[in-house]
Amino acid sequence: MAARLRVGGVAALSVSLFACAHYPLNAPLPRSDPDYGYRVSATSGDTDDSQQLLLIVNFSGGGTRAAAFAYGVLEALRDTTVRFDGRERSLVDEIDILSSVSGGSFTAAYFAVYGRRIFDEFEARFLRRNIQRELLWRARLPFNLVRLVSPYFGRSDLAAEFYDEQMFRGATLGDLLDGDGPALLINATDMTLATRFTFDQEQFDLLCSDSMSFPIARAVAASSAVPVALSPITLKNYAARGCGYQPPSWVGEEIARGYSSTRLHQEALRIAEYRTAGAEAYVHLLDGALADNLGLRSTIEKAVEAGGYARLAAGAGFKHFRRVAFLIVNAQTDSIREWTRSASAPGVLDALTSATTVTLNRYNYETIDFFRQNLDQLVADIREERCRPRGEQPVPADCGDVAAHLIEISFAQHPDPAERTYLRELPTSLGLSDEQVERTIAAARTIVAASPEFQSLVRDLAQLPAPAS
Predict the structure, then answer these.
(1) What does the pLDDT read at residue 12?
(2) Among 23, 70, 291, 391, which is disulfide-ready with 59 (CB 3.0 to 4.6 Å)?
(3) Where are the alpha helices (DSSP H) in 195-296?
(4) Which of 53, 44, 51, 47 is nearest to 458 (CA)?
(5) For the segment 212-266, what is each residue's pLDDT rounded down to a tens digit?
(6) pTM (2 d.p.)
(7) d(C-alpha 285, C-alpha 282), whole Å
């Protein structure tokens, strides 16, 4: 009888746990307000960083490898000081926007939440731990095995709980507005629409949802939800309830115009899909690398929506900078070279890995090349906007004093061929050895120091005229 009671108790507990196993829902937005929510514009107010430089840093995907490489770049920026805009400045304190995907999102989010504490804590809390093994161990606990049977609670939901407990401690997107750190744009992929999904209020407005209470850990979990290994992160779309949000007029105009392959039309289609969803509509998110492994396309697509880079920058609150720098931290690796030395055909898993790597690497190249080609247009947009006559107000004499820098930091730039080979063969996982972490961090510092593009930015900033008193 006692044994039957124990079995019955376990069964009842299992049923109870199964019934309670559900991912936390994102909150609905009662009423849309352009001044409410987690937006880049809300982070660009009175801070101690220079108004002369707009520094946008992009962290790529690649698991712990990408997180360590990004961390090493932050260390290099911390140790790079330049005198401009009236005083000596460490470039890590001048970062205005951090855009990230997948593994890079762990570093970006930790820095956005804790600032310089990252240099004291992040290695122990994340980089030097086998996160992959710890997640597997947690998933095998009886309590979690039962929860994972639920169709409403997946492996990424369990990972989000772990990230929150171990790193982000309940921090939400809204909490970022209380500090003076950079704006954080964490990017995932909408697996239904095959488009970028950025965790900010502009995206949440389309869902009639409130970004302020959304946990940073869940955003990071979505951004790094590698297909198969991890499950999608699910959000509810409340657009059918209504919240007073009205898309820009150009969205309706583009839809009415009929199909077009232009970027503006594709953005209109993306927005319309969210706005016309039914009463029971959901968004399922996977690894951000699937849509953009560099976190760079959010800038391109947001500029298309805004009507140009000048309007995008001004709308985000950046109006007085004279230098804009895009620092792209790319932790991409090569396909497995051993295949070229084997007469046997690669297996199914090898072929799948190759297909993913080839696609991401090619997409990385095309994205950077496209952005580089558009850099002159970006500068021209800003100059035109600033030098445009406005009534009787005089046009500032230095209105055209704007320049842009595009800096890519990648393994391929390491000056040591042997170290390049070592870095390019690092695995994409959430668990590296201490040696792998140390060499990746050191490589980032070496590559930044040797980068002609980075040194050009440093010289340019040092030569900026002092601000008028």
Answers:
(1) 45
(2) 70
(3) 201-206, 216-223, 249-257, 263-275
(4) 53
(5) 999 999 999 999 999 988 999 999 999 999 999 999 999 999 999 888 888 899 9
(6) 0.91
(7) 10
Banded pLDDT at 305 (limits 50, 70, 90)? confident
Tokens coding 52 = 């002369």
Please tell me whether residue 328 adopts helix, strand or coil conformation.
strand
Is the dihedral angle over the CA atoms 287, 291, 294, 296 positive or is it negative? negative
Beta-strand (E) ranges in 150-269?
183-190, 195-198, 233-237
| Residue 459 vs residues 36, 54, 413, 466: alpha-carbon distances, Å | 39, 16, 20, 14
pLDDT tens figures, 64-114: 999 999 999 999 999 999 999 889 999 999 999 999 999 999 999 999 999
Return the half-sphere exposure (C-beta side, CA atoms, 13 A cut-off) of residue 85. Answer: 18
Q: What is the dihedral of CA 171, 177, 178, 181, to 10 degrees?
A: 90
CA distance 295 to 58: 6
Here the tokens at position 264 are 């503006």
Query: How many Å is the maximal CA-CA distance in the chain?
Result: 93
Element (H, E) at 18: helix 2-20
Axis-axis angle for helices 131-139, 155-163 (nearest 10): 120
| Environment class of 444 (CB within 10 Å of its CB; exposed 0-12, middle 13-18, buried 19+) | buried
